[in-house]
Write a structure and sequence with these properties.
six-stranded antiparallel β-sheet; about 45% strand; single chain; mainly beta; about 220 residues
Length: about 220
């Protein structure tokens, strides 16, 4: 468990929310401007629901939570009309009903966070020094499924079976200026189509620089 300042935070509606400690989760509440932030402490979890109403931030503390500072620090942020995940390098939209999860693992090969979607579906973002080859991406036991090139990214898919269930690992590979990105969707085969709108929104919306504006004409899904 980490007590260092979070390297990943979330911004939207004129606010910037930095979780107090890791591990933590931030979920974008369906059909509202609200997010729910949860942090793990030694004696359990603390949570708060944050929502902007008439340009005012309203907080609702969860069970066992005494103060907002136990969960997050809130400061003025960019005037975005949605919630965006920010790191020191890039910003991307947090899809509706998806959850940002950060474990606090600072190892060099660990993604700084995961996005959790429908059951057993995850997306994570990596910034490799150079774009990996097909053979580098293919894990033991996986079979090449398909590949292609879209305006937003090149993509590759691998499939495998685990405990009698078919799984798919899909990579979307692209550059923002000179920075390489690999966005990975890992999902049961029957759930891949359900996740595609969120994956497309993440890839199309990803912008370099924490202070960068969303891409021109971008519409969050």
């Amino acid at each position: 468990m980490s007590e260092r300042p979070a390297l990943v935070f979330i911004s939207g509606f004129g606010q910037r929310v930095t979780p107090a400690r890791a591990p933590y989760r931030i979920v974008r509440v369906v059909g509202s401007r609200a997010i729910e932030v949860t942090c793990q402490h030694a004696d359990g979890w603390r949570s708060v629901r944050l929502e902007t109403i008439d340009d005012e931030l309203v907080s609702c503390l969860g069970e066992h939570t005494v103060t907002l500072s136990e969960v997050a620090e809130v400061a003025p942020g960019p005037s975005l009309d949605a919630w965006w995940v920010e790191t020191s390098l890039y910003r991307l939209p947090l899809p509706e009903s998806w959850t940002l999860h950060a474990s606090g693992d600072d190892s060099s090969d660990a993604a700084p966070f995961q996005l959790l979607g429908p059951p057993d579906c995850t997306v994570h973002v990596q910034t490799p020094r150079r774009m990996p080859s097909l053979h580098k991406l293919q894990a033991p036991g996986q079979t090449f499924r398909d590949t292609g090139q879209l305006d937003r990214a090149a993509w590759l898919e691998f499939e495998y079976t685990q405990h009698g269930r078919a799984w798919v690992q899909r990579y979307e590979l692209f550059h923002r200026e000179l920075t390489a990105f690999a966005v990975t969707l890992h999902a049961p085969a029957e759930q891949v189509a359900v996740c595609m709108d969120a994956l497309v929104g993440i890839v199309e919306g990803l912008t370099l620089g924490a202070s960068a504006a969303p891409p021109s004409g971008f519409s969050q899904r």
